[in-house]
């Protein structure tokens, strides 16, 4: 086994603070990567980061190359049909309202250099959310969020010099009630999970589910069968005592104060949901900044 192959299969051998995915491709991965470049020559240029995610994301499939080609072709077609490449070029309709009803924020970098994303999908009653944004609207906003994370990863990669294509995600279930067990919540949520799994493979480092109440057991029973086993293995379900686990991956000064960290860039004394105007302003400014870097 070559040194590069050894490192790629043993991320612990990488220096502290280096994303595990920055390890070199193994010889088998390199062969698949080259064949993908040849197969999709007419679709080039495809982001190298995307090709590597698909190469590694389907490495355990029985018919690895054929499966990878099929999944990548589906993704390219989906991106074309939904104008994904330009989704960050201009605001989506009623953006600020979506931030109010579905609080989310891109905040800080993990100890290994991954961007960290927070959201509270249970902040609003699902019937109110669906009255304002139908399932297709919610898919569109979720795709916008995923594309924003891809841009942040590329900036992290440029800043650090290390390949970075994964993220740490924190899903806050504060506010979860029996109303979230119905199809008004589960159908849009499942649509978002499918976007992540089918079109953004190998994008998740760790997902922390925090403030999970007892009732979450029912929701988890519905959600878990939708997940690929590799995705499910990267999920950590925590209650209100989540902070010590989060600190294992994210330094305290990178965790926002409203989740118990020492980063005080947001106003003190307010919850995540109450800061939707602040997080939306941050999002707009960051989107403009990242678009200028392209």
Can you describe this structure?
Residues 1-28 are annotated as: Disordered. Residues 1-11 have a biased composition (Polar residues). This protein has 294 residues and is an alpha/beta fold. The protein has 2 domains: 21-82; 95-292, 3-Layer(aba) Sandwich (Phosphatidylinositol Transfer Protein Sec14p), CATH 3.40.525. The chain has 12 helices and 5 strands. The chain is globular, with a radius of gyration of 19 Å. The two termini are 38 Å apart. Mean pLDDT is 90; it is low at 1-16.
List the helices and strands and how they pair.
Elements: H1 3-8, H2 27-39, H3 48-57, H4 64-81, H5 95-101, E1 104-109, E2 115-119, H6 126-132, H7 135-160, E3 167-172, H8 183-199, E4 204-210, H9 216-223, H10 229-232, E5 235-237, H11 243-249, H12 276-293
Helix pairs in contact: 2-3, 3-4, 5-12, 7-8
Protein name: CRAL-TRIO domain-containing protein
Biased composition (Polar residues): 1-11
InterPro entries: CRAL-TRIO_dom, CRAL-TRIO_dom_sf, CRAL/TRIO_N_dom_sf, PI/PC_transfer
Computed structural class: alpha/beta
Q: Span between N and C termini? A: 38 Å
Overall radius of gyration: 19 Å
The average pLDDT is 90
- SSE order, as H and E? HHHHHEEHHEHEHHEHH
- Residue share in helix: 40-55%
Task: Give the strand line-up of the largest sheet.
Answer: 1-2-3-4-5
SS element count, helices? 12
How many DSSP-defined strands? Answer: 5
Poorly predicted spans? 1-16
For the record, the CATH architecture of the largest domain stands as 3-Layer(aba) Sandwich
Query: Approximately what portion of the residues adopt beta-strand conformation?
Result: 5-15%
InterPro entries: CRAL-TRIO_dom, CRAL-TRIO_dom_sf, CRAL/TRIO_N_dom_sf, PI/PC_transfer
Biased composition (Polar residues): 1-11
Region (Disordered): 1-28
Domain CRAL-TRIO: 94-267
């Amino acid at each position: 086994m070559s040194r590069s192959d050894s490192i790629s299969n043993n991320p612990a051998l990488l220096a502290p603070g280096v994303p595990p995915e920055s390890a070199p491709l193994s010889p088998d991965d390199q062969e698949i990567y080259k064949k993908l470049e040849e197969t999709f020559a007419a679709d080039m240029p495809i982001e190298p980061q995307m090709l590597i995610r698909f190469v590694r994301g389907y490495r355990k499939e029985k018919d690895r190359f054929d499966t990878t080609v099929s999944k990548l072709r589906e993704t390219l077609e989906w991106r074309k049909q939904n104008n994904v490449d330009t989704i960050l070029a201009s605001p989506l309709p009623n953006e600020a309202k979506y931030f109010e009803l579905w609080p989310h924020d891109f905040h800080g970098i993990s100890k290994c250099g991954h961007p960290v994303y927070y959201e509270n999908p249970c902040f609003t009653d699902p019937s109110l959310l669906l009255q304002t944004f139908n399932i297709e609207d919610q898919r569109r906003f979720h795709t916008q969020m995923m594309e924003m994370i891809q841009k942040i990863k590329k900036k992290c990669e440029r800043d650090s010099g290390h390949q970075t294509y994964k993220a740490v995600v924190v899903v806050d279930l504060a506010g979860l009630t029996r109303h979230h067990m119905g199809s008004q919540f589960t159908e849009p949520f499942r649509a978002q999970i499918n976007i992540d799994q089918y079109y953004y493979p190998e994008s998740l480092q760790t997902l922390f589910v925090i403030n999970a109440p007892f009732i979450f057991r029912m929701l988890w029973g519905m959600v878990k069968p939708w997940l690929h086993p590799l995705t499910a293995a990267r999920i950590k379900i925590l209650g209100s005592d989540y902070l010590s686990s989060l600190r294992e991956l994210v330094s305290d000064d990178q965790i926002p104060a409203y989740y118990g960290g020492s980063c005080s860039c947001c106003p003190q004394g307010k919850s995540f949901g109450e800061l939707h105007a602040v997080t939306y302003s941050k999002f707009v400014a960051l989107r403009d900044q990242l678009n200028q870097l392209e």
